[in-house]
Specification:
Blueprint: H1 8-13, H2 15-51, H3 59-115, H4 118-123, H5 126-168, H6 170-177, H7 179-217, H8 219-224, H9 228-281, H10 286-327, E1 345-353, E2 363-371, E3 375-380, H11 386-393, E4 406-408, E5 411-412, H12 418-423, E6 425-428, H13 439-444, H14 454-463, H15 467-472, H16 490-502, E7 508-512, H17 520-534, E8 538-542, H18 546-550, E9 554-559, E10 562-567, H19 569-575, H20 577-594
Helix pairs in contact: 2-3, 2-5, 2-10, 3-5, 5-6, 5-10, 6-9, 7-9, 7-10, 9-10, 14-16, 19-20
Bound molecules: adenosine-5'-triphosphate (ATP) and magnesium ion.
């Protein structure tokens, strides 16, 4: 339950509508409780008058009775209308507040998600993130909205109705109330089972959705390996389990109303039996009896809702716990940090890194500096840690001890305002991600207002070697990309991703293997332009290819997470065997291409 304390801030924020809502609950109850009183008085009055009927067709008395019935009927109608109006406002305030809290909470979670680093996203699946934002938040909403409303309603109904019942007949009240705790406890038990059933259904639904999602994402591989039947079978099995769990829940659900009606019926029976005897004995009027039956009906729902809301609150607490886990996850978005500045150099001091859950280090004790304006090349075998280093420099694993090992003009990355840093950084990750929007929007993505002038676009597109490709598409820059850019070739995607970085006019560029999928002629063209483009900035270029590495002032060679060699192209040809072999094999390739 402590988990729900987090929500107190929202209860405070919406204190005024909440209090108003509770006032409406009280007013609704006052009007509800006056209906049985009117029924009793009206009925007793009419019965008294009916005693005066002396013979058949005593039209005077009949008219009187009719008038009494009419007056009380209208009174009951008016009271009920008032009650309805307040009930409307009660829902309008309390349920609306719960929707507002839901909205606030979703925004808080979404913003938090955006602040959390790479490490968090490797640990948590997309489905999990989504379900906390949708289902868990809506469970919490049920606590703020219906739970509080029904709980307040129950309290007021109890106080008002039981007070009136005791006034009318204390001992009968006791008898009538006797079955109610049983009702409350059994509803609670049924609700708990319903929630448990819902939970296993949700879990199974997540599996089912994840399975479908993976199928769609990997549909080309599935088809090319002829695995459709296997995947269909898996999906059918998951679906079968989902159906079975739903059936189980349906059985429990089916018990809910019959159980409520049974217990309600028993209580009514008790009132009529005991009340009838009291009327016979003359201690109770028929009006009292009618009044009691109505009271009982008024109590049933609050009693049932007590069990129901208790289960809801428990469910909300479990959900809030899951939400709190994320809200409390460490994020290192230091917007209060120092502004980013690069006047002299970037220094990497003893940088080591091990991915969580791994035993081998991906980077060990890497040391180097990048002077302002330099281009640094990074190469090395696959898996040697190049992308890891690039991600560290791009502050993707921000906030770990590693952020202290990277210094800009002597200021550790950990102390720099991350937003400001990213504003000045253009990073092209190894695995391209494009949004399903137009090419223009994809390229202008990182600009402050998301808009680029035609001239800027033209320059970036030319530099990224995309000009020819774009003129070939009928819609040119306005071509809309399919999901994840499926309508482009691998090399085209890479170049759109490069153009997106170039247009940013950043101070510091990190390009991770961004030309691996283009042919060597296109590569040469791009490199010529890149060199000019990067002149104003500082850059790190990761590649397996000699051509882009040649742009660099210095080249680092990584092996198994260690920095083994560092030097210019010519120096490395002499000192580093790996580099020499790389160069030899690629110049042989170029020669054969030229033939
Ligand atoms: N997200 C990750 N979680 C765990 N281990 C990882 C992760 N990413 C990379 N590694 C491991 O870290 C090591 C270095 O990987 P990295 O991606 O930096 O290599 P790379 O030099 O960029 O390789 P490539 O040339 O293939 O791109 C590898 O052993 C890899 O298995
Ligand atoms: Mg890599």
């Amino acid at each position: 339950m402590r988990e729900l304390y987090y929500l107190n801030q929202y209860l405070k924020k919406y204190a005024i509508p909440m209090s108003l809502g509770i006032l409406f609950v009280l007013l609704t109850n006052i009007f509800s409780a006056s209906v049985p009183v009117l029924v009793r008085v009206g009925l007793d009055e009419a019965l008294k008058q009916s005693v005066w009927i002396s013979g058949a067709g005593d039209s005077l008395v009949m008219g009187l009775i009719f008038k009494t019935a009419l007056i009380f009927g209208v009174a009951i109608l008016l009271v009920s209308i008032l009650r309805g109006i307040f009930m409307y406002y009660m829902r309008q305030t309390l349920i609306v507040v719960s929707r507002k809290v839901e909205y606030d909470l979703k925004n808080v979670l979404y913003d938090k998600y955006q602040q959390l680093g790479e490490g968090f996203y490797r640990k948590h699946m997309t489905g999990d993130l989504l379900s906390r934002m949708s289902e868990d938040v809506s469970n919490v909403r049920m606590y703020i909205g219906p739970s509080i409303m029904y709980f307040a309603n129950m309290l007021f109904t109890f106080v008002v109705v039981i007070y009136q019942m005791v006034q009318a007949n204390a001992s009968l009240t006791l008898w009538v109330l006797l079955p109610l705790p049983i009702l409350s406890v059994s509803i609670y038990q049924v609700s708990k089972r319903m929630n448990r059933g819902n939970k296993v259904i949700q879990e199974q639904l997540s599996l089912l959705t994840a399975s479908a999602q993976e199928t769609f994402a990997g549909i080309r591989i599935i088809k090319s390996f002829g695995m459709e039947a296997t995947f269909s079978k898996k999906f059918h099995e998951e679906g079968e389990e989902y159906k079975r769990r739903n059936m189980d829940l349906a059985k429990i659900n089916a018990m809910f109303f019959p159980l409520m009606l049974l217990l309600m019926g028993l209580s009514t029976l008790l009132v009529i039996y005991l009340g009838g005897k009291a009327v016979e004995a003359g201690t109770f009027t028929p009006g009292n009896l009618a009044e009691f039956v109505i009271y009982l009906n008024m109590l049933i729902w609050p009693v049932a809702s007590l069990g129901w809301t208790t289960a809801l609150v428990q469910k909300a607490a479990a959900s809030q716990k899951r939400i709190n886990e994320f809200l409390q996850a460490e994020s290192h978005q230091t917007e209060t940090g120092k502004p980013f500045k690069l006047e002299q150099e970037i220094a990497v001091n003893n940088l080591s890194f091990t991915y969580e859950g791994k035993t081998t280090t991906s980077l060990s004790d890497v040391n180097f500096t990048i002077k302002k304006g330099e281009i640094i090349g990074i190469t090395g075998k696959t898996g040697s840690g190049k992308s890891t280093l690039a991600q560290m420099l791009a502050a993707m694993y921000y906030g770990n001890a590693e952020a202290k090992s990277i210094l800009f003009d002597g200021v550790p990355l950990a102390e720099i305002d991350l937003t400001d840093y990213r504003r000045n950084l253009a990073y092209v990750p190894q695995d391209v991600f494009l949004f399903s929007e137009s090419i223009r929007e994809n390229i202008a993505f990182g600009l402050e207002d998301g808009k680029a002038s035609d001239e800027e676009l033209q320059r970036a597109i030319t530099a990224a070697g995309l000009l020819n490709d774009i003129t070939q598409w009928p819609q040119g820059l306005e071509t809309i990309l399919g999901e994840r850019g499926v309508s482009l070739s691998g090399g085209q995607k890479q170049r759109v991703s490069l153009a997106r970085a170039l247009i940013k006019k950043a101070q510091f560029y990190i390009l991770d293997d961004c030309l691996s999928a283009v042919d060597s002629e296109t590569e040469r063209n791009i490199i010529d332009q890149l060199q000019a483009w990067l002149k104003q900035s500082t850059a790190v270029v990761v590649s397996h290819r000699i051509a882009p590495l040649k742009m660099a002032n210095r080249i680092l060679v990584l092996d198994d997470g260690k920095l083994t060699h560092m030097g210019t192209h010519d120096e490395l040809l002499v000192s580093c065997e790996y580099y020499k072999n790389l160069n030899d094999s690629q110049s042989a390739e170029n020669q054969s291409e030229g033939m």
